[in-house]
Structure formats: C-alpha cells, structure tokens
Amino acid sequence: MPADANELYRTRDVVEILGISRRQLQYWAQTDLIAPTVKTPGGHHRFTFDDLVALKAAKRLIDAGVSVQRIRRSIQALRKLLPGVDRPLSELVLVATGDVVLAFWEGTVFEAVSGQEWVFEVAQFQSEVEAWRREAEKRFVRGVRPVRRQREWIRTA
Which of 14, 94, 100, 127 is the most buried (most CB within 10 A)? Predict the structure, then answer.
C-alpha cells in the first residue's frame, strides 16, 4: 500500500509498475475494462492504488488465458450478482481456470458470469449426512426402519 492512500499514479508509472504497454492501458480504459478513477482537466488519466490492484488482477487473468471479453462479462455479472461490490477486480479474489473466472466472496466460490456455485463443501455435506443418520436412528428406535422402497419408509413391527 502506498504511504499516502490518496496518491495518484500517472500512466507512465502504471505502465512501469505493471509491465504493460501504454496502448494496452489506453485500450482497457477506452473499453471500460478498468477506467481510471481521476481524469485531470487536461484529460490525463490518474490511477489510484485500487485502480492498480484492478489492473494487476486483469493482467493476471489475461496472462492465465482469460479473454478481455470474458473479464468484462465477469465484471458486469459480478456487479449484478453482488450489488454491494462496485469494483470486483479489486474487491474480490478471482481465480482463472481456463477461460472460467471463479470469484471468492464471503466463504463462497462461484463462476463469475453464471453465478453457479463451484465448490462442493465435503465437511458441510458430512454434517448433513450425520444429521440424517441421527434422525434415521431415531425413526428406527420408534419402529420405522430406514430402508427405502419406491421412495417410501417402511414401517416395521
């Protein structure tokens, strides 16, 4: 984090920090992939540290093989899915697997464009199975055996 959180970075600084071309940075700004936070009266772009984080995230996704169009769709979808998140690239942890972008948010992992949950939590499922087993044992004690035929419980005794 910069010493002054309000510090602004010029285009040439961003190009040097991130190792991208000036043209690439201009294209990302023009296509609204990542717009700079500040424009000077003379029309020059100034970037905040949050902008740098978003730019670095975009660069890493592109380097991982995700298309700029896919990143843009992911950003738009994430803003709809998570209305409290204004800047998904700097506020969320994103992971690319092929051309799929996964977003981590509040303990959940989901595909950024579709919103489909991506992680199968084995520990949670194990808890559900254990709860089912306890209920099944209670039913067995009461004379209902946990054997299923045609989706119905069979009463014994």
Answer: 94
Determine the Cα–Cα distance for residues 111 and 100; give it in Å rounded to an integer: 7
Strands 93-97, 45-47: pairing kind: unpaired
Q: Is 45 in the same domain as 107?
A: yes
Rounded to whole angstroms, the Cα distance separating 102 from 88 reads 11
Q: What is the pLDDT of residue 21?
A: 94
Q: Residue 44's domain is classified under what CATH number? A: 1.10.1660.10
Decide which of 38 and 91 is more confident.
38
Res 1 pLDDT > 50:
no
> Do 129 and 84 reside in the same domain of the chain?
no
On whether both 66 and 129 belong to a single domain, the answer is no
DSSP-derived 3-state class of residue 4: coil
Look at 45-49, 51-55, 83-87, 120-124 and tell me which has the smallest mean pLDDT.
120-124
Asked if residue 70 belongs to a domain, the reply is yes
Count of beta carbons in the 10 Å neighbourhood of residue 49: 17
Q: Which residues pair with 154 in a beta bridge?
A: 145
Contact 89, 57 (CB under 8 A): yes
Which tokens hold the place of 67? 């298309």
Looking at the structure of the chain, the number of domains it has is 2
* The overall pTM is greater than 0.85: no
